[in-house]
Amino acid sequence: MTTQSPAPATKDAARTALLDALLSMQTREEMAAYLADLCTPAELRAFTERWQVARLLDGGDKSYREIAAEAGASPTTVVRVARYLKDMPHQGYRIALDRIASAD
Fold first, then answer.
1. pTM
2. Can you tell me whether residue 82 is helix, strand or coil?
3. Angle 25-91-58 (CA atoms, 0-180°, nearest 5)?
4. pLDDT in tens, 59-78
5. pLDDT tens, position by position, 51-62
6. What is the torsion angle, in degrees rounded to the nearest 10, for the CA atoms of residue 90, residue 91, residue 93 and residue 99?
7. CA-closest candidate to residue 48, choices 24, 71, 25
8. Distance separating alpha carbons of residues 53 and 86, to the nearest angstrom
């Protein structure tokens, strides 16, 4: 018996529902609780590591090697985050970094 993957429209609806759930969190505590339910501890560590790398890259004053050491990340992760920060069209890291900077 083979299983079929959901139709693209179903996947899009599920993704939209996930995004809506994330956006419904109103406090850091609520978001932490939701992410603890949603993600494994390893996934949360990976998210935290990538975000730390993005923040350090945005600071612009450290080498990739220094960033990897400070964030506890692999050099591959630093390069990947740097590529997404600079070159990718969705610019999610950039949006978050800019919004946080403007809130300070």
1. 0.84
2. helix
3. 95
4. 999 999 999 999 999 999 99
5. 999 999 999 999
6. -120
7. 71
8. 13
